[in-house]
Amino acid sequence: MGGEEDVAGDGTYGEWDSIGALVRSAAERYADTEAVVDGRTRISYGELGARVERAAAACIAGGLRAGDRVGIWAPNSLEWMVAALGAVSAGAVLVPLNTRFKGAEAAYVLRRSRARLLFVTGTFLGTSYVASLRRAAGEGAGSETGSGSAAGPLPGLPALEHAVVLSDDAPVGFRTWKDFLASGDGVGAAQVRARADAVRGEWPSDIVYTSGTTGRPKGAVITHAQTLRAYGIWADLAGLRHGDRYLIVNPFFHTFGYKAGVLACLMRGATMIPQPVFNVDAVLANVASERVSVLPGPPTLHQSLLDHPSRASYDLSALRLVVTGAAVVPLRLVERLRGELGVRTVLTAYGLSEASGIVTMCRRGDEPRVIASTSGRAITGTEVKVVAAGDETGAALAPGAPGEVLVRGFNVMRGYYEDETATAEALTPDGWLRTGDVGVLDAAGNLRITDRLKDMFIVGGFNAYPAEIEQLLGLHPDVADVAVIGVPDPRLGEVGKAYVVRRPGATSTADDLIAWSRREMANYKVPRTVEFIPQLPRNASGKVVKGELR
Fold first, then answer.
1. Which class for 481: exposed (0-12), middle (13-18), buried (19 or more C-beta within 10 A)?
2. What gap in Å lies between CA 84 and CA 70, rounded to an integer?
3. Where are the chain's structural domains?
4. Helix-, strand-, coil-residue percentages of the chain, each rounded to 5
5. CB 127: neighbour CB atoms within 10 A?
6. What does CATH list as the number for 457-549?
7. Higher model confidence: residue 49 or residue 325?
8. Closest CA to 323 of 259, 385, 384
9. Which of 60, 208, 261, 480 has an alpha carbon 20 to 30 Å from 116's alpha carbon atom?
């Protein structure tokens, strides 16, 4: 079912060839509008534009060329925005890293993408990112990378020439944010703008690494033109407007936080209020004190807001727009947001990194039941169909029949970065993206996601991939065999459960394995329960029959 109508709005997303051009346009168009509120810092769009140009100048001074990859591993902040937008304005390709990653996970993505520059936070949630990266990619960690210079700050990452800590101090080999910005002071404004003007819409703007069923992260390559078109449509469908105040709790490393957040606000002149961690008390305080009008996020965010015992003591009356998805949305949640908080617009959407983060979306005015039970219809310029799993003919199933969701359109990735095999598996010769999600289309073209072919489960809005968790658990000396499934959780939606076959003589308990997992993997991947069994159920071809475990 294709996107059936032209979206309402002024279509301004057609004005810019690149993200850098969008930043400059916003700085001129909304010069005096408040752009960012980050703690005590408040800056206008004009000031934001100037800061981004300064960051771009520093990238140019550091020898960054168009097409070079730039990693960023940090929580939501003004510095994240300035660093990322500066790098992309200079023609670089952004590689955002999940803030929940451990050092080895971050090092893998940096190595695969051959990032030349990294922006990294100092300490976040009690963890030194620099220290964990040094452990994973320090001396002796480069043996698997082959030849290459080890002149950079981390020998295990030979392509990485510069690492900038987004704070006032940095260890030896790393640079401070202030020092990095100062390094570009000799680069003139004309040179910075010429570099930005040279960026073409068909060039890659970012590579979003997503872990597949193989457990090996793959980088979805998305261009400037795809990004600008997709989030112009998103802003139109959502009804985002100048003067909106947008609390961005969705992490910037995720397409939804960066693109439906930062870039959509740049398009419309909305004020961005980045929040580094989801904390319901902080959300309530921000919504009340900053008169927040727009609050996208997973259903768990809105549920915890509604259920907070002190909610009545906060003025939430400015809230007018909520966009949610990434999990089942209870009809009761939609009704409560409208009835108890007076939120006029509640919308649901569906997307994945390989399709620029957006595939379908509800429309304003849709019935509450449509919003709660589906993810809406295909956006303009895209097609969605459902086919029988494993059917190579691509024949679409009738409305109401479940099957694998396929997507085709302007939003589909150019491919996985330097991974032709994985790209060929994901994209059909005629351009359809195999999403790996099972869904149902109704007669009106509304899509309902019912299951996941890939066994992925969603923990509080974060995608968790069993194969990746299984690979990590398999490194434990006491684990002979392991399978992971998602099980329902009242707070997070779903969490992992591991079925483990012990090695002979092993004595590890469930608590031991969970504690070990907390040290070795991002928190959302950690199984919350472990059950020991004599052997895993397998079919004739040796694959684990997860249906039996469920």
1. middle
2. 8
3. 18-199, 220-452, 457-549
4. 35, 25, 40
5. 14
6. 3.30.300.30
7. 49
8. 259
9. 261
